[in-house]
Amino acid sequence: MNKDKNLSSEPKRRMTKQKQVILEELKKIYFHPSAEELYKIVKKRIDNISLSTIYRNLEVLSQSGLVKPITFSNDEGRFDGHMHEHYHIKCMVCGKIDDMALMIPDKHSEFFTKSSPLYKLTAMKIEFYGICPDCQTLKNRLVKRRRKKVDHEK
Ligand SMILES: [Zn+2]
Ligand SMILES: [Zn+2]
Fold it and tell me: How far apart are the C-alpha atoms of 66 and 153, rounded to whole Å?
C-alpha cells in the first residue's frame, strides 16, 4: 500500500517543483507576463517544461489564490505573483502592465455605500491606461530626432 502511495506521489512532487519555479519567477518580476512570456522565463530553469504545463500550473496556482490572473479588456490573460491588493496600469504603446502606486479605497467605505445604496458591493475592477516611462523617452527621442532633421533641412 505504501508502495502505491509512493508511486502516485511521484508525479505530484514534480508538479510541485514546477509550480514552485513558476511562482518564484513570477514573484521576481513586475511586468505581469502572459503565459507565453512566463514559459520563456521558466524554460531557462526547467528545460523540458511545456507551454501547456505552464497553463495548467497557472490555473491551479490561480485557483489556490497564489497567483492573480489579470485581464484587461480584450487582452490575453496576464499573471501576477504579488498578492497584495493593487491597481494596474497598461501602456498603450508597448502593452506592458505595471503596478500602480495608488491607494485602493475600502470597498465598505462610505463613498461606495452612498453612491449606490441599494447595492452591497462585493468586488470592483478599475483599469488604468497610459504611456510607460520607456515609451515616453522613446517618443521624445523620436520627436527630437525629427526636429533635428527639420532644422538641418532649413
Ligand atoms: Zn510602454
Ligand atoms: Zn500587479
Answer: 58
